[in-house]
Amino acid sequence: MSDLFDLEGRVAVVTGGGRGIGRAIAVELANAGAAVVPSARSTDEIEAVAADIEAAGGDAVAVPADVTDPDAVGDVIDRAAAEFGGVDVVVNNAGFNPDDALGRPEDVETESLDRVLDVNLNGAYEVTHAAADHLHESDGGSVINVASVGGLVGLPRQHPYVASKHGLVGLTKSMSLDWAPEVRVNAVAPGYVSTELTDDLEGNERLRQSIIDRTPLERFAEPEEIAGPVVFLASEASSYVTGSVLAADGGWTAR
């Protein structure tokens, strides 16, 4: 069974791969044997990830890019193919939920909605589109979109984010139909995860406790707990899984 999770000889591109969930995904894909191309806007962060992977005996190359820039996205895919011979796995993890996109609908400007959609949804489409030829040439290409519980249910005062993640879930399902059987397309929907992005939440005892009370497993996840499902979806262990959304949410959506 362990051979089914072996990613030796596979090449994986991970957007938003410099910290938090993206960093954990990049590291665990490398631990499973994949050559990894972490990408993000911060060159320092992704170079640190690549260095850690190589220090552990893996193969990695860092390629900075903003997922809203088609030319930069194309460079990431081209560099991955040039360095490692192709692209077999794409993990669309880049995303954000800025302060100006939080609030009641009447208080959030459409410009904020546009920015969130551009990164969280359009960016994922852009990266997948750029990698399409390589994925179809691969012997078992796999796309994993990092959505959210906010792609499965509503979350108050996070309307642009929720809209973007619902869109990503829809994109996952529709793309899986067109690309089967050559390429599998799935999503992971994390709940609340302990990263720099949730530091403020965890620092607010009232909000932190309300999230824990709402979560059957009674805690935030660690980034590595999201990376595990991604490795599963990238590997032959999930060879009959496509168009699915794996909720890694501590039971949040079971209520």
UniProtKB/TrEMBL annotation:
Assigned keywords, A-Z: Oxidoreductase
Recorded superkingdom: Archaea
Ketoreductase domain residues: 10-186
One Pfam family linked to the record: adh_short_C2
Oxidoreductase is among the record's keywords: yes
Molecular-function GO terms, alphabetical: oxidoreductase activity, acting on the CH-OH group of donors, NAD or NADP as acceptor
Family indicated by similarity: Belongs to the short-chain dehydrogenases/reductases (SDR) family.
PANTHER family (UniProt xref): 3-OXOACYL-[ACYL-CARRIER-PROTEIN] REDUCTASE, SHORT-CHAIN DEHYDROGENASES/REDUCTASES FAMILY MEMBER
Descriptive protein name: Short-chain dehydrogenase/reductase SDR
